[in-house]
Amino acid sequence: GDSVTQMEGPVTLSEEAFLTINCTYTATGYPSLFWYVQYPGEGLQLLLKATKADDKGSNKGFEATYRKETTSFHLEKGSVQVSDSAVYFCALTPSNDYKLSFGAGTTVTVRA
Amino acid sequence: DGGITQSPKYLFRKEGQNVTLSCEQNLNHDAMYWYRQDPGQGLRLIYYSQIVNDFQKGDIAEGYSVSREKKESFPLTVTSAQKNPTAFYLCASNRGGTEETQYFGPGTRLLVL
Lengths: 112, 113
Hints:
The structure holds two protein chains of two kinds. Chain A is built from no helices and twelve strands. Chain A has strands spanning 3-6, 11-14, 19-21, 23-26, 32-38, 44-50, 56-59, 62-65, 75-77, 86-93, 101-102, 106-111. In chain A, strands 2, 5, 6, 10, 11 and 12 form a six-stranded mixed beta sheet that branches. A four-stranded antiparallel beta sheet of chain A has the order 3-9-8-7, with no helix packed on it. Chain A has a two-stranded antiparallel sheet with strand order 1-4. In chain A, a hairpin with a 2-residue loop joins strand 7 and strand 8 (62-65). In chain B, the strands form two sheets. In chain B, strands 2, 4, 5, 6, 9, 10 and 11 form a seven-stranded mixed beta sheet that branches. In chain B, strands 1-3-8-7 form a four-stranded antiparallel beta sheet, with no helix packed on it. Chain B is globular. In chain B, strand 4 (31-37) and strand 5 (43-51) form a beta hairpin. The mean pLDDT of chain B is 92. The A-B interface holds A 4, 32, 34, 36, 41-46, 49, 51, 89, 91, 93, 98-105 and B 4, 6, 31, 33, 40-45, 48, 50, 58, 90, 92, 94, 96-97, 99-107.
């Protein structure tokens, strides 16, 4: 079945450091790919998405590119802030379906 | 403001008790979803509904029940048959059909006394 594997955490960084969270997927066809963020004690918020190969999603300084050849959707940010401390989830929706499959989540802590 | 509300924020359940978690949306979305989140794990789908008066089991439906009598509301009941109910429960919605993005509520944390 469809699945998402993302980098295990926790990840601890200093402010202004570069962040990468790896995400790979297994799916038939052309799924849509998402990154959601969860701040402490809150629900999930959509961070960015990409719906076809080579699309780049971007938001709040975060970027991820849909790579069909490597079945990956890695999240990157060039300079993190303390306010980026959160849990990040990679997820996919299969083509012609509406169910979201989530990775296990990666906890990111940014220190001042 | 449009959005999804969940109540209560914290809920305590006694042994053998059924409890109901509320989820309301004013986004005019057709589809609604319930997920369970456990520490160190991703979200797992409990139930979903694509239209009023219709719903389907997700991956971990045992011990849970839902209803969808109104478009705006999708309550989840955690029954006494659910032996390990302690978790964070998240409700989501979207227009359904070909819209992929789901929008989430703030969650309810259920604890067993």
